[in-house]
Amino acid sequence: MTPPAASKSVLGYFGWAFAVTLGGLALGALLGWNATGTFGGLATAFFICAVLAVLEISLSFDNAIVNANKLKEMTPVWQHRFLTWGIIIAVFGMRIVFPLAIVAIAAHINPWEALKLAAAEPEQYARIMQDAHLAIAAFGGTFLMMVGLTYFFNHEKDVHWISFLEKRMAHFATIKGVEIAFVLILVLIFSSLLDGNESTTFLHASIYGLLTFLLVEVLAGFLDASQKTMSTAAKGGFGAFLYLEILDASFSFDGVIGAFALTQNLFIIAIGLGIGAMYVRSMTIMLVEKGTLAHYRYLEHGAFYAILILSVIMYMQTLMHIPEVITGLGGAALIGVSLWSSIRYNKRNGVAHDERSHRAKA
User: So where does this one cross the membrane (predicted)?
Assistant: First the structure.
């Protein structure tokens, strides 16, 4: 795939990601300037692209680990195909086509019309998006809330960051469907705060968001079961490639939906999530070649708390306007604090990653 791991530094794996980051942030800033003609608009677009990239990287941390574990079973040819064709599908499929489909469905227009409006008539596009915002917020908020709660309502989860809260959630996870009941109660509360058609729209969109999450869970379980029965050849070839692509779509869904909590600009969403996808690709290559997994204990917790915050904000946005900067800072701050807590834990407990020892055992 690439030069031997022993002759390549950690930063060496992220060369393309850094290049895409510089180009993407510059393009995002240019879009902000063209849209508003002000430095404030330029800075806002730049900031949102950066936050989306950070959020995508954090939310896709598990994705990189799963990809690395599966890639070890694949032949070198299919490894290369996944890391080239796969990233194209991930960036252009899930980060561009999929958000466009959400906009088209929510606004009741075809995807081509949605794309033309986004590119040529941003004011009209913004108006349609404003009309569709209630449904998007309800759908996305419900999906994200299920993603976050499912992580914490897990009786097998034994690593806790905020112990007093997470231990209780893990304890109540033995009650079947507790997270679904919690979300449905919130859906009923928020729908009761809206009037007439808005209440009905919120309720229907929330139910679709819940059903989508459950279907993704069913699909993931089916793929896991099917993977166990695959032949060795299938695991190392197209079967594994297809498996990883569908898993990537499942992992990416929460990031794509969460992006609508930050901005409704399709191109900024694509840029920010595309930057993040490049880092996930680089991280996957590094994990495979160096035989090591990142070991920040609480980083995953911070990402899922960020998901929960986004879900609550999306619900609140159906009742009031919440500035995008506040939304972005909340998630980024949580991820940063969780990373800092992980580093402190490693220092206190003398946790260090010894690559030579790992390779000696392999």
Answer: 12-33, 39-61, 82-107, 132-153, 173-194, 206-225, 266-286, 298-316, 322-340
